[in-house]
Amino acid sequence: xxxxxLGFFIAAATSNYxxxxxxxxxxxxxxxxxxxxxxxxxxxxxEKIAKAIDEYMIAALDYEYLEYITYTSTEFNALLxxxxxxxxxxxxxxxxxxxxxxxxxxxxxxxxxxxxxSQKVVTKNHWLILGTLSAIISxxxxxxxxxxxxxxxxxxxxxxxxxxILLLLRDIDANIFLADKIGYGAEPQSVFRAIGKxxxxxxxxxxxxxxxxxxxxxxxxxxxxxPASFEKTIKLRGEKI
Length: 241
Known about the structure:
Blueprint lengths: L1 H40 L4 H16 L6 H4 L1 H17 L4 H24 L6 H20 L5 H25 L2 H9 L2 H8 L4 E4 L15 E6 L8 E6 L4
Parallel strand pairs: 1-2
Antiparallel strand pairs: 2-3
């Protein structure tokens, strides 16, 4: 029963993990595509759309574990407003405007899917069941331990493995791996570079990033009272730290 439940939860959590990884990658690509379309349709709106995308991406990186979907509605709505303004004032280029509207719909779709997929699969009741079964198995194994060293080592390895598997399930279910990859990796930085902005990192992310992964010129969000508040000042740094 423990193996069946554990296998089910790992499979479900992994499915969500992969779905989120794909959707966030597609969302970043869609933002770059939208920027390119706006440059063609209405060149004078280039700086406006770049500013909206930049503010949205910066706000998204402020939050860990994919919470940005819930807390970036203001910046996202501002981005949609810019897109709508371009569509209503562009006049000609109807095929391109239709492409822009299609990209907007995809962006909305990705966020809705992310909002659903980012929910945890394993609830408190599920953890209680898994924890109870783990404890029962561990106690049963320990009761079978003999005075032989091999027996003690083998049972110890099995118990530690059970604990590690539960920790792995927790990390997958909480999307910790994905949050680090998306939040602190190269993928979001590609969006900033595509819209002509310097790379951006929250101050708390710098300790997770190796010096060799930092560009020569990048922005850092320095929080005034983290984590009580996300109010910050953005400073430009001109060399690696």
